[in-house]
Amino acid sequence: MTETASGAARKGKDRRKGLKIERVFTTPGVHPYDAVEWERRDVVMTNWRDGSVNFEQRGVEFPAFWSMNATQIVSSKYFRGALGTPQREWSLKQLVDRVVGTYTATGRAHGYFATDEDAEIFDHELKHALIHQLFSFNSPVWFNVGTASQQQVSACFILSVDDTMESILDWYKEEGIIFKGGSGAGVNLSRIRSSKELLSSGGTASGPVSFMRGADASAGTIKSGGATRRAAKMVVLDVDHPDIEDFVESKAREEDKIRALRDAGFDVDLGGADIVSVQYQNANNSVRVSDAFMRAVETGSDFGLTSRTTGEVLATVDAKELFRKMARAAWECADPGLQYDDTINDWHTTPESGRITASNPCSEYVHLDNSSCNLASINLLKFLGDDDTFQIDTFVKLTELIITAMDISITFADFPTEKIGETTRAFRQLGIGYANLGALLMATGHAYDSDGGRAVAAAITSLMTGTAYKRSAELAGVVGPYEGYAKNADAHKRVMRKHAAANDDVRTIGDMDRAIHTAATAAWEKCLKTGEKNGWRNAQASLLAPTGTIGFMMDCDTTGIEPDFSLVKYKKLVGGGSMQIVNQAIPRALKNLGYQQEQVEAIVEYISENGHVVDAPGLRPEHYEVFDCAMGKRYIKPMGHVEMMAAVQPFLSGAISKTVNVPEEATVEDFEHIYFQGWKLGLKALAVYRDNCKVGQPLSTGSGEKKTADTPQEAPAPQVVEVNRPVRRRLPKKRPSQTVSFSVGGAEGYITAGSYPDDGLGEVFMKLGKQGSTLAGVMDAFSIAISIALQYGVPLETYVEKFTNMRFDPAGMTDDPDIRMAQSVVDYIFRRLALDYLPYEERAALGVLSAEERRAQANGEDPAQVAAQVESYAQSAPVAPAESAAESTGEQGARPAPSTEVHTTTELVERQQGFVADAPLCVTCGTKMRPSGSCYVCEGCGSTSGCS
Questions:
Q1: Mean of the pLDDT values across residues 466-493?
Q2: Is the pLDDT of residue 718 over 60?
Q3: Which residue numbers delimit the Ribonucleotide reductase large subunit C-terminal domain (predicted)?
Q4: Shared-domain flag, residues 92 and 173
């Protein structure tokens, strides 16, 4: 009998031949490291808000072609060993050796390779692919493999919970263990009886929404305890659960609470002191909708909510009204998303072993309860040849190599719970995916939102999954199919035929997608033939993850299935400093579209100056769509994202991590349309986010304590007292004043502040440039009101406390070196006034410090010593290192970093195009993050808001 899950060595006549590994990227007798130029670099990462050093390691070794950003992320996140000790890894060679060595040794020991020579080729090919950034494993592999810690390789987990208190408490514990390790988990709570049903003791049940509170509090506690990233969790409830309306509106109600707390002066920013009192903020919520429910929505019919204990209908609701409540709640606070239950289970390879009820937090992994999935993503742009053709053969060979390695990892992997370990070893779920699709499409002249772009994406995805399952069938012939295959053989074969049939339905548009599609068809034919004979080694093979941190590790321009974020990028330089650079995909795109070199240079220069292509010299308007991005002057419309997801979904075992962003002015009807079309187009899961819909915002730079109002219980007993009326102290006709010009999020304005001759602010007038008469009048009235109150004795610190951190547009980067980021113009104005007119002690209590004071604080000095030397205002200085570096690079479209200092591409685009990205600040380094799948990733340090 051939060992499969354990991978034990086989003996006797049942011994099968191992895999023959072909050299594709390497040369016999030449180690892959020897074919690369290596260099030593110093990594020093700071938090720009306070100047503190987050991470420092000098003399690290990386290939010369790796960016400084990728170097910083790998050094700080993936190198193991205590800093400053000989045990600390300092070279990418050590990291890759640690991981690949474990994979090769395990594969050799468990019969994956035909000969030792094949094992060596596998070792060299994998090392070449990793150091050349052709692909990357997910973060847990880099964290754990080859270390003394548990060899956890999976980033995605699905749990289960039954209708017993023991099971609910186990759920809390299992989630906590997973969060502690920096991963995320999802769970469906639909087995828990509703709050409308009775307990066996005769009382009324609490219902799943109540138990969500405990799990949410646990996740928040573990998150704040310092794990590798915040706790990431998904909570799912079936649409026929009697508590579905309570579930749908749970987070929207909490958003109302946040608004009330904010208006009362509490700190409800993300990470704020008072946000912990708000519930359900640590999970993504999704409703599992059925085809029956969606048809009821379509026809305007009623829909029954059923008892969890008896199965009887407890209540009947208007399906269309319930659907509208889902859309309205998502419009208000981005939750819930939808998961399309029947579609998911129609593509399920192992239904005899259980239904698919939930997903991981980012919704790309959908499979059995108590299971996990390890991920790897291919850098698609690496397969675009110098002749701008897609290198199909090398892409196929790399996919085969990755699937082999990923399956090996399940053999040695550890898991957070025994139940998860048993299920994963029995079904061996894998999640190969890709990044840089958006960059590949642009470079080849394909608009993301076009039939041609969707055809290329569909063909590549089909080729990837067809090749992955073909290799899985070949592995089954060597080390046996997965344990659960025999029970699910018919269903698995049916799903493989569905994939192949979907491939046959792809409508090719151009030469590029036609060639890829031909290869995909051949891969599916061989997959079906080999699988019919051997079965398959893996119940699941592919999905599309957000690829946040590993996307930056591979120096990808775009993550996962996302389009390009912007046309200009912020680039760190190895020698220090920074510059902005036009995406290198743009010159290739222009060349492919038929433009001459002189035209290309002129267009690239225009983009570098303006950040968009509208009115670029010589660029034909019909080509504008090729350069549409996720954000900016020309952004991709919401249905463009949905239709791209629909194009690739039939060729994925799992689903797609992606949030469809819609503008702030989108309506509830827009949400209904998108969610309904997601079902019609065959998606498995969909989430929609409306800009600025959430109140909780990034961590503020302030650290002052908040004063709380007296509670009614603390109020003194009523008594009659004599109140002295305040007296207005008017300013003299001639008084000292100063005027400060400013820019916040691209909006320019002026502050004119007048003082009493004996010191003390007495008036302030605020003007915004290019505003309409109504706004001008409102600002004048606001200024007069503040000025009169100051003259009546209202302390300036009262206004600073009340108006700082107030958020509304325009907001974003400023041109003030002391206040790099403002939540609004009012937030900026009162921070500036505090810096100019309040003594250090009062400002420190309010958390308003100058740049010099923050630097002194970070260096362990007393900020009070430098407070007197801080100038009231200073123009930003140019970044000299960036200028010299930009001149020396010779890169087309490279420019010195803007004089107003920026730290990420998001901040650069905000400054250049004058809009504000609705994204949080990184809690590690303080820079603004950018969207990645259904969460956010920091371009500066690689931290994510919950994804792998």
A1: 98
A2: no
A3: 154-689
A4: no
CATH number for the domain including 403?
A: 3.20.70.20
172 and 321 in a single domain? The answer is yes
Distance CA 612, CA 608 (A): 8
Task: Give the rounded percent of residues in the chain with a pLDDT score beyond 70.
Answer: 85
Q: How far apart are CA 290 and CA 796, in angstroms?
A: 58
Residue 806 pLDDT greater than 50, yes or no: yes
The more confident residue out of 784 and 393 is 393
Q: How far apart are the first and last CA of the chain?
A: 37
Does 512 fall in a domain?
yes
Any alpha helices (H) in 44-91, and if so which ranges?
68-77
C-beta separation of 371 from 429 below 8 A: yes
Q: Quick check: is 824 in a domain?
A: yes
Catalytic position from the list 332, 364, 474, 801: 364
Helix (H, G, I), strand (E, B) or coil at 795: coil
DSSP character string of 335-361 = --EEEEHHHHHHT-S-GGG-------T
Strand duo 302-306 + 313-318: pairing: antiparallel
**Does residue 112 fall inside a structural domain?**
yes
**167 shares its domain with 141:** no
Instruction: Grade residue 711 by pLDDT with cuts at 50, 70 and 90.
Output: very low
Tokens standing for 935? 């969460």
Where do runs of H (alpha helix) occur along 750-795? 773-791
User: In one letter, which amino acid is 433?
Assistant: G
525 carries an active-site annotation: no
E strand segments, 817-885 = 819-822
Half-sphere exposure of 642 (CA within 13 A, CB side): 24
Is residue 593 assigned to a domain? no
Distance between CA 631 and CA 384 in Å, rounded?
Answer: 25
Dig out the tokens for 574 from the structure.
């190895």
Residue 705 annotated as catalytic: no
Provide the pLDDT for residue 707: 34
Question: Could you read off the pLDDT of 583-607 as tens digits, one per residue?
Answer: 889 999 999 999 999 999 999 999 9
Q: Which of 489, 521, 550 is the last residue in one of the domains? A: 550
CA distance readout (Å), 185 to 176, 181, 643, 762: 10, 11, 28, 56
Mean pLDDT of 70-82: 94
Closest CA to 254 of 224, 277, 221: 277
* 234 and 144 within one domain: no
Q: How many domains does the chain have?
A: 3
The strand pair at 337-340 and 568-572 is best described as: unpaired
What's the mean per-residue pLDDT of the chain? 85
Asked if 726 and 792 count as a contact pair (C-beta separation under 8 A), the reply is: yes
Predicted local confidence at residue 78, as pLDDT: 94
Strands 302-306 and 371-379: unpaired
pLDDT greater than 60 at residue 865: yes
Examine residue 587 and say whether the peptide bond preceding it is cis (omega within 30 degrees of 0).
Answer: no
Do both 448 and 363 map to the same domain? yes
pLDDT score for 875: 34
Tell me which residue has tokens 């699988």: 531
| DSSP bridge partners of 135 | 378
Determine the pLDDT at residue 712: 35
Q: Domain range spanning residue 171? A: 160-351
Q: Do 396 and 446 lie in a common domain?
A: yes
Q: Which of 156, 362, 556, 693 is catalytic?
A: 362
360 tagged catalytic: yes
Structure tokens at 672: 């209904």
**Ranges 100-104, 227-231, 657-661: which has the least confidence:** 227-231
Residue in 47, 69, 144, 360 annotated catalytic: 360
